């Protein structure tokens, strides 16, 4: 058996600039971190080598790989010609919550299959391959940030170049400021899950509008400002930069926010939060807020949503167990 562990991510600023329709014209950038919540993929030979068993939110037992319903499983297993195995996916959070679950799953699956086949792939190549699967082969209307965040791990500034290349630069901070940043972040679950595809499809179409493109440029500038502030070990402006980014993000597509999210955000801002945002494409999932410790209980009581504790992680995509591939 082989088991991989792949982290989910929190994006602070620049989301949307990782769409090819934008970065191929202007270049894009994102500031994000991986967190200690994971997707686990295990693989081992199936008892009956004529069948393949897949376990995720559903169970699929197929003789022919072409019969697989799960799009990512179907694409990757058919491309690799891997059959006669049992693959199980489990995760610390459900999909559709804004933490990059689809791409985290793709990176984790590729990592597990590489190990199963005795192949090595660097973290950069792993992210690149995951982008190829999701964006090019499956035509998902998504960007590149989630694949690179999941593969590399850590608190990073990720730049999307006009030629399609991606560079990942770790944020270097004093340890006490790094830990203070974590302490000042609070995440709450709105109770809704959603597919990001419809929102991202609208956002892709809207990029051609000059006002939307200009707002995305401003969001990239905010990501740059956040990077500079963190590398100078300054947190005073972090909350306000989050707030400015959320105001801009709300303008990119109609489904990004809704009255329930707006009310929760306003309640948080009135009860100690200095800034925040909805994570992911929008419509539901997790709300993130920056709040000093002395105000966190007040915010928690006022918001009345389930808090989701987390911390930063640094490892990225990892193989955590390798057992025997075949039985005796």
Q: What is the strand and helix layout of this fold?
A:
Layout: E1 2-13, H1 20-26, E2 28-45, E3 52-55, E4 59-62, H2 71-80, E5 85-91, H3 101-116, H4 123-137, H5 145-152, E6 155-160, E7 166-170, H6 175-183, E8 185-189, H7 197-206, H8 210-231, H9 238-249, H10 259-269, E9 273-278, E10 286-291, H11 293-303, E11 306-307, E12 318-322
Parallel strand pairs: 3-5
Antiparallel strand pairs: 1-2, 1-12, 2-5, 2-6, 3-4, 6-7, 8-10, 8-11, 9-10
Helix pairs in contact: 3-4, 3-5, 4-5, 8-9, 10-11
* Oligomer state of the chains in this structure: single chain
Low-confidence stretches: none
Class inferred from helices and paired strands = alpha+beta
N-to-C series of helices and strands: EHEEEHEHHHEEHEHHHHEEHEE
Radius of gyration: 20 Å
End-to-end distance: 14 Å
Percent of residues in helices comes to 25-40%
In short, what is this structure?
Helix 10 packs antiparallel against helix 11. 40% of the residues lie in helices and 24% in strands. With 328 residues, it is an alpha+beta fold.
